[in-house]
Design a protein that fits this description.
This protein is an alpha+beta fold. The protein has one helix and two strands.
């Protein structure tokens, strides 16, 4: 005999209140899963556009084409050559300058921009 209800139960038997609570919980679980499944719908829409797209161009030019030719330099010599870089295209241009030495003395030269 239990102290709360005054009803005797056999071993392994659930009370009616407990069975109702479990059934209610299972029913609510099924209901919420069904509602969650229905709320995962994907809505799509499309509309025609009359806009146009165009790309810019970058056309790099340099003057003179051979930037720097030095012959018969010795330590302590200095020389200057102007190099003009321009963009003949329609888009804005940012650039960086690098140098490459093609002979042994080129590794020892200092380039100042």
């Amino acid at each position: 005999m239990t102290a709360l209800t005054g009803v005797e139960r056999g071993p392994g038997r659930l009370s009616q209140e407990r069975r109702l609570a479990i059934m209610a919980l299972l029913g609510l679980t099924a209901l919420s899963l069904g509602a969650g499944t229905m709320s995962l719908a994907i809505f799509t829409d499309s509309d025609a556009s009359t806009g146009t797209f165009s790309s810019g161009t970058i056309d790099i030019t340099s003057s003179p084409t051979v930037a720097f030719t030095v012959t018969d330099m010795v330590p302590g010599d200095a020389t200057t050559q102007a190099l003009t870089i321009a963009n003949a295209g329609t888009a804005s241009l940012r650039y960086a300058l690098t140098t490459a030495a093609t002979n042994a003395i080129g590794d020892a030269l200092t380039l100042t921009v």
